[in-house]
Specification:
With 497 residues, the chain is α/β, with parallel strands linked by helices. The chain contains 14 helices and 21 strands.
Length: 497
């Protein structure tokens, strides 16, 4: 089988993660994963494309150098912030009721629902994605697998669609152009993360996936194997860092390092750790100050209580609070906080586990950090993108020599008048080949009629050269004038003047 390569970028508020995977058939092997601090991103959304492009450009260059490959395009996760969920439906009357329903009809039905959904403001909003909820025929109501293969006069589908800001996606496109890579796919991450960290029995029996990032904490609720609800709040791990910085008068870097090294919730359960005191040295002034670990935990706990309370309110609003038989799965970078899972369990009464990427869905070799909770989004994007059999983001640097005449010419995808390319067309979230098809053919110039010139003798060679160079720069009227001068000069030469 042919090898394909998938490169994904997780754009986080505090970090940018680049992941590269090799795909052979249905086997996904992650061969590269590295994180670096991000810039120009706030609340999981790119607000400064120029600044955001710098770390991405550096990350791609490092990966290309280490793997000896060339990254041509990347798969990017769309923002989870400023996204609302809506419902959409579509119905088709089938011309041949005896024919069995195929997956292609399901796909067409989904496209009809998306195309017909009335956005509040189409100039500012964009549909990020859609999740099928149920399908119905004359005799069957159920999921996609329940109706495919049946016969019916009609087919109806209901969908959850997620609507976000168009400018946020436009900024991603600008950032990628600045970084020198193309957009392969743009994926709304919550459903992809669920596929990466949730077990099938959890998704079937009811579970809430709580993803705590640096700038945004989101919740996705699954029931019956389908994502039924999504919501978010604009608070996360960065809010905790800010609280430590303001309370202790540290800078951002020191506050973040202290949080990562000694951050914990529930100070009453720290045991002997709660008695320790951190000595923070100021090498510039030669002074130091003491920070009790218990006090640090109290700062962190206050913010975590606020986040958890908001999440529990959203679970109640979803209408699925009494149907979460498998409780809550906590993932994202915030899941590393000590005692956070215990705190959620005490406040909610649900069972809580940490959501690590499921090793059964991919393989990895020599990729530190890929199995951690903060890598869940990267793994989810990779697994989702790998389902597209035509997607290949990587070109190997070392290739056997090829006949250059047989190679297809490179095609450069130019942006449209708004500088956004084809990003906002539904096809743009698929293959790059579809983008190329949308480039209008170059207008061919009509050939000029051939000019008949009088025969010239050898003595006119130098004048001929000057004639060809000069007349090619001017219009026909000026060319006629020069022609008259040319004849006069020729006649003078014949007269020996």
């Amino acid at each position: 089988m042919q090898e394909r390569y998938i490169a994904t970028v997780d754009l986080g508020t505090s970090k940018l993660a680049l992941c590269v995977a090799k795909v052979v058939g249905e086997n996904v092997q992650i061969i590269y994963y590295k994180e670096r601090p991000s810039e120009g991103i706030r609340y999981n959304s790119v607000y400064n494309p120029k600044r955001a492009a710098g770390p991405l450009r550096a990350a791609i260059a490092e990966a290309e150098d280490e793997l000896q490959i060339k990254i041509l395009q990347v798969v990017v996760g769309l923002p989870r912030y400023n996204v609302r969920q809506e419902t959409a439906s579509a119905k088709i009357d089938r011309s041949d009721a005896a024919a069995l329903i195929e997956e292609e009809e399901i796909s067409n039905l989904k496209n009809m629902a998306l195309d017909s959904y009335p956005l509040t403001d189409g100039s500012k909003e964009l549909i990020y994605g859609a999740v099928p909820q149920s399908f119905s025929t004359d005799d069957v109501i159920g999921a996609e697998e329940d109706v495919v293969g049946t016969s019916s006069d009609t087919l109806t589908g209901n969908f959850k669609i997620f609507v976000g800001k168009k400018k946020a996606v436009s900024n991603i496109d600008i950032m990628l152009n600045d970084a020198g890579v193309a957009l392969a796919q743009a994926i709304f991450p919550p459903a992809a993360v669920g596929e990466a960290v949730l077990k099938s029995d959890e998704m079937s029996n009811g579970v809430a996936l709580l993803e705590m990032g640096a700038g945004v904490t989101s919740i996705s609720i699954y029931q019956g194997g389908i994502m039924r609800y999504f919501a978010y709040i604009p608070f996360g791990g960065k809010s905790i860092t800010t609280d430590i910085r303001l309370e202790c008068a540290f800078d951002d870097t020191l506050a973040e390092n202290i949080k990562l090294a000694f951050g914990a919730c529930m100070p009453e359960k720290l045991q002997t750790m709660g008695d320790k005191i951190l000595q923070i040295n100021d090498e510039e002034n030669g002074t130091y100050e003491n920070l009790p670990v218990k006090y640090l935990s109290e700062i962190i706990t206050a913010r975590c209580k606020e986040i958890i309370t908001a999440m529990l309110f959203l679970i109640q609003e979803s209408g699925f609070a009494d149907r979460l038989r498998c409780g809550i799965v906590l993932t994202g970078g915030g899941a590393n906080l000590v005692n956070l899972g215990n705190m959620i369990k005490e406040m909610s009464g649900y069972n809580v586990r940490i959501g690590f990427p499921l090793a059964s869905k991919f393989s990895s070799d020599g990729c530190p950090g890929i199995g951690e909770a903060e890598a869940a989004t990267s793994v989810g994007l990779t697994l989702e993108a790998a389902t597209d059999p035509y997607l290949n983001c990587i070109e190997e640097a070392a290739r056997p020599a090829q006949n250059k005449e047989a190679e297809a010419p490179a095609v450069e995808i130019a942006p449209d008048d708004n500088g956004q390319g084809n990003l906002f067309q539904p096809e743009a979230f698929g293959k790059v080949e579809e983008k190329i098809k949308k480039i209008p053919p170059r207008k061919q110039r009509e050939p000029k009629p051939a000019k008949v010139k009088p025969a010239k003798n050898p003595s006119e060679d130098k004048l001929n050269i000057i004639w060809k160079k000069v007349t090619g720069l001017f219009s026909d009227s000026f060319e006629n004038t020069l022609g008259e001068l040319y004849d006069d000069m020729g006649n003078n030469n014949e007269g020996g003047q």
